[in-house]
Each structure stands twice: as C-alpha cells, then as structure tokens.
Amino acid sequence: MDRFVVISGCSGGGKSTLLTELEGRGYCVVEEPGRRIVRAETQSNGTALPWIDLSAFLRRAIEMAIADRTSVQSSEDWVFFDRGLIDAAVGLEEVTGEPILATLGHTYRYHSRVFLAPPWPEIYVQDPERRHGMNSAMAEYSRLLNAYPSIGYDVSILPKVGVVERADFVLTMLGACRSD
C-alpha cells in the first residue's frame, strides 16, 4: 500500500519515539507487534516470548502484523508501522530457515520507501520488553538492512538527530509535510 510506511531498524534506535512524534502530528501509528505480544504473554503467563519460544513469538508477530494492516485498510492518509510483517518474517527465516520472506514480502506490500533507525548505542536501553543486548540488536539491524532491498524496498537511514528533525526528515522524504 502506498500509504503504509514502515519504520524499522535497530532496537533502541529511537523508532517508538519517532512514531509518538508522528502520532502527535495527527498521523495514524501502529504499535510494534512484538511489544504487544510480550505484554499479553507476560500477563497470561504465556510462552510465545522471544526469550522462551522465539519461533512462536515471531509467528504471532506475523499474524498480528497482517491483522494490523487489515485494521487500517480504510485510512486515506499515511499510516506508520513500528516494525511489522517484514521484520517478523526476517526473524522467523533466521531462526527456522523457512523461506517465507519473499512470499510474505511480495504479498503484503508497504510503501516502497522504508525508514531504518541505525544502531545508536548512546540512547539504547534494555527494558522488560527488550531484554536483548546491543550486539543482538545490531545483528538484527544488519539482517533488516539486507532484507528490505532484497524484496524491492528503497531504504532510507534515519539521521541521528532530535525527534522533531527525524519526523521532518520522514515526512520530507515522503513529500507529505503538513503545514500547521
């Protein structure tokens, strides 16, 4: 979908902060499936958690990302996704070897321009939903940096600047700046 924009990249690279800024400017934002799954599984004592059953977690993230796309289908403006389907497919392919990225990546398209947050150790923090360290986050970033172009996306690396400037960068790249 030409109006569905993915913000992806390195864990702890400022994606959620950027998406909060975009939401504050009136855009529709879809929260990262992984964080929602971790909260739900933790509350229900479930096991589809990245540190218990990564494969189950990633399968659930794929299902949720597909449902997310359906839930915002009627939006006529930009919709910004905090990660989503491609990220989960890349992870599942890495963990299981199942060749699903190409199929899912071509069936469920997003805007051709994807924005990746680069590793930013100065702002990286672990929390109850993000238990992995910076090395794992950087390895994931590297996989995503290769995967998105491999299925036809143009990648723009987000600059390491303040959140207002980052949001302006995204909107400028999309040609969608709103005047307030």
TrEMBL record:
UniProt-listed InterPro entries: NadR/Ttd14_AAA_dom, P-loop_NTPase
Residues forming coiled coils: none
Any single Pfam family the record assigns to this protein: AAA_28
Gene3D superfamilies recorded: P-loop containing nucleotide triphosphate hydrolases (3.40.50.300)
Recorded superkingdom: Bacteria
Every NadR/Ttd14 AAA domain range: 5-166
Name this polypeptide is given: ATPase
Lineage: Bacteria, Pseudomonadati, Pseudomonadota, Betaproteobacteria, Burkholderiales
